[in-house]
Design a protein that fits this description.
heterodimer, A: alpha+beta, Cytochrome p450, five-stranded mixed β-sheet, three-stranded antiparallel β-sheet, 16 helices, B: alpha+beta, two-stranded antiparallel ribbon
């Protein structure tokens, strides 16, 4: 089976149907990319996990000629990637560890009261202005931006610029020039922010990392700027998409909404299930085979690229029975929405708590929330590498 | 049952603290794993089995008592 990757969805809530067909036959299948090159898409949970743990035979270094991409624009961006997201070990761990304490479970837990305040303030504003309202613009974009700006130390009014830079990287339609320009602009922005915080420190991540790692000489300002750009992009775009999709999953299922309203302690499990079911990251993580490797009877040749399909792995019936159904009672703990291996999402606990807080707030504050348009008028992000929705008109 | 950790592998994802908070913590200095109870007893009830399974860096080892 070979086809040009990526594929279109048949249903907005399910990954492209080719994944299920391919997954039934083998752990991975060959596809043709935009440039005519061959690559592999890994669809089964066990193999995605195994490959992401196998740093000996698979490289995640983005700045290598064979690294597979879904767009031409991504080639230049990958080649110039200098944050640890694009590194192999030992470099990866060295850089990541400058930031691990900033995202520890305890640190993220301490943000929950502030998240609750911000979520409720935004709901108040939406409530005062509507109905109707676009939940994506009113809540899903602004809420993670507010949390991230306070945590990181970037002024909130810069979030539109940051999102524009994130979209240029995560889109499927940008030109190479546009994507690279935005990547450079965001790194330059963080570099200026570092200079400003060095002169005038605050209670924020940038100031802390300057004091702990930049001033002692462990981390250069330029490297910090590249990593900071990565953190800002991830913190603004992915959670926004999960909030939009999570709200939509609640709106389309009155039974689920009632069950969660009656049992708020199940919100945590519901958020994990939403993460599994939505799996917003579509075409990452990616790897290049460092040697010939046989997987499930197929030969992946040295130098060939592989896409780990998190949406496909998270619908693998071998791990999740009746996987196409949202079931908040299932054991979904092995879902791979945040990836696996050394590159597993650094901000996952931030995202989890942000989502839990917002879902609780929506259920408590807006029990009568409903979709204000037919589902067909919700625009799904088929034009992005991070899946979600562009708009969610709601009333109450 | 004895739990051990390999801090050289840890990437600070926090999965172990999330599912087995009575057994694992993260060092306030570097965010990497700290073992607070090497003999938590039951594998399932303590969350240790789950933590070992979910650890993205496979930094947790569980050995039966000799």
């Amino acid at each position: 089976m070979s086809a040009t990757f990526p594929f279109l969805r048949a249903c907005p809530f399910d990954p492209p149907p080719q994944y299920a067909v391919a997954r039934a036959a083998a752990p991975l299948f060959a596809v043709t990319l935009w440039n005519g090159r061959r690559a592999w898409v890994v669809t089964r949970h066990a193999e995605v996990r195994a490959i992401l743990m196998d740093d000996k035979r698979f490289s995640g270094r983005m700045a290598q000629p064979d690294f597979p991409t879904v767009t031409e624009a991504r080639v230049t961006v990958d080649r110039n990637e200098r944050a640890f997201v694009g590194m192999d070990n030992p470099e990866h761990d060295r850089y990541r560890r400058f930031f691990t304490r900033e995202f520890s479970v305890r640190r993220m837990q301490a943000l929950i009261p502030r998240m609750e305040t911000l979520a409720n303030e935004l709901i108040d504003e939406m409530f005062a202005a509507g109905p109707p309202a676009d939940l994506v613009a009113s809540l899903a974009v602004r809420y993670p931006s507010l949390v991230m700006s306070e945590l990181f130390g970037s002024p909130y009014e810069d979030h539109t610029f940051i999102i524009r830079c994130a979209v240029a990287r995560h889109g499927l339609t940008q030109t190479p020039g546009e994507a690279e320009t935005r990547a450079r602009e965001l790194a330059a922005y963080v570099r200026r922010l570092i200079a400003a915080k060095e002169a005038s420190p605050g209670d924020d991540m940038v100031s802390r990392v300057i004091a702990e790692h930049v001033l002692p000489g462990h981390l250069s300002r330029d490297d910090f700027a590249e990593i900071g750009a990565m953190i800002l992009r991830a913190g603004h775009d992915t959670t926004t998409n999960m909030i939009g999709m999570g709200a939509l999953l609640l709106l389309r299922d009155a039974g689920l909404r009632a069950a969660l309203a009656a049992q708020p302690e199940k919100v945590e499990a519901a958020v994990e299930e939403f993460l599994r079911y939505v799996s917003p990251v579509q075409f990452s993580p990616r790897r290049v085979a460092l040697e010939d490797v046989e997987i499930g009877g197929m030969l992946v040749k040295k130098g060939e690229g592989l896409f780990m399909s998190l949406p496909a792995a998270n619908r693998d019936e071998r791990v999740f029975a009746d996987a196409d159904r949202v079931d908040i009672g299932r054991d979904n703990s092995e879902h791979l929405a945040f990836g696996y291996g050394i590159h597993q999402c650094l901000g996952q606990m931030l995202a989890r708590y942000e989502l839990q807080v917002m879902v609780r707030a929506l259920l408590a504050r807006l029990p009568g929330l409903r979709l204000a348009v037919p589902l067909e008028q919700v625009r799904f992000k088929d034009d992005m590498q991070i899946y979600g929705i562009h708009n969610l008109p709601v009333a109450w | 049952m004895k739990v051990s950790i390999d801090r050289t592998r840890c990437v600070g994802a926090g999965q172990c603290v999330r599912v087995a908070p009575a057994v694992f913590d993260q060092d306030e200095k570097d965010g990497l794993v700290v073992l607070i109870n090497a003999r938590p007893g039951d594998l399932g009830a303590s969350g240790v089995g789950k933590a070992a399974l979910l650890c993205p860096a496979q930094a947790i080892r569980v050995e039966p008592d000799a």
